What we know:
Blueprint: H1 2-14, H2 16-53, E1 58-64, H3 68-76, H4 78-97, E2 103-108, E3 112-114, H5 117-126, E4 136-142, H6 146-149, E5 154-156, E6 168-173, E7 186-188, E8 194-201, E9 206-207, E10 217-218, E11 222-226, H7 234-243, E12 244-248, H8 252-263, E13 269-273, H9 274-317, H10 319-327, H11 332-358, H12 362-387, H13 391-397
Parallel strand pairs: 4-11, 6-8
Antiparallel strand pairs: 1-12, 1-13, 2-4, 2-12, 3-4, 5-8, 6-11, 7-8, 9-10
Helix pairs in contact: 1-11, 2-9, 2-11, 2-12, 3-4, 4-7, 4-8, 10-13, 11-12
Amino acid sequence: MNNQFLFIINDIRKNKVYFLWNIIQISIVCVLFSIILQSVFEYRDVKCKFDEITEQSEIYMFRDETTDEKFEELLNDENKLHQLAELYDSVQKSVEASHGDILSFTANSNKRFYMSEELAKDIAQTWEVPEETRDSLDMISVTENFFQIYQLKIEGDMTQLKKSSKEKIPAIVGSSFQKMYQLHDIIYDSNDLAYEIVGFLEEGAYYIAPGERREPVYLDQFILKLSEIDPEDSVDLLDYFVTTYYIIKGNDFMEKVVEKSRDKDLMDLSINNFSFQMNAITEDIKDELILNGSIMAILFIFCLVAMTGNVLQFISDAKREFAVHMMCGASKGAVIFRIIMQMWCIYISSAVFVILIKKASKTTFMSLVFSAVYILLLCLLPIWILKRQTIQTLYKKSYE
């Protein structure tokens, strides 16, 4: 058996170029297959959550089409600020007067959490943080019903989220923070403002923001705090209209808001909805899947032809050597083992590369199972060829 492994190592050394090329091919196929599966699973999960939320109503959002010049005016004109506050107040009164027919929630991710030096050091030691974001974290200001709408499970006490004070701000953080902190620990931002951790989200928690990005927003490394709108802050008011979503059966209420805003020469708003955005996302994902699937299919066919050709070439070149070994007492099984072990060495090497690139996940595992089935079928080729050959035919064909 030890001799067999020495033969395998020697075969790999002699054919190292083909060996490395096959590893690269299988690795690329597996990575692409994993990306395709991840896109499919993500879209399926998002679609299911979207269908649950919009089962009886639609989700609408305002789309801001305000020019930069008008935006500057809104930020600096006290009269415009007063009118914006009145518009905000009228929206709030309409929501309250609807008695549940209009359900709104806010998810404002326009601001970042700039960390204290100590927190930034802890994060850098625990997470892989891109260099451009090492001084800050993603942060979302949300309304309390945000967690219920997106069915986010929390370890902790949700009631503590509303107990804000000048000394500390309650915050719910993503699951990645559990590697460093416990409930009621305090973290500080760059201005030494204290945030108390009152809850942890479960791993993989996400929300959907079609108006913001196509992919689901995963919250593992996010800080979430309760949204508070200051009616005397123009930035807060402007953010409110583009980060608040409304779950309603019809958009008559929102059309009135758009009309009021335009009549008073405030924001140039229009209305968008999740269904429209999700349809656009679906088309984008289909195009992406077709492109990645086509590339993967071409590479897989090329890989199939190349590896099959390499196996046939190796068997053809080594027929005389196989015949001599069999004359000296080696069995056909030992010769077949020598050939198929090279294929599994290629598979194991490519699996290591794929795991390093895509990390251990369900989609990575499925792509590796796919390639393992391919290698398993390819192993039938040397078995089929050598089972039909005798020592004499192998020896004779080595001279053809």
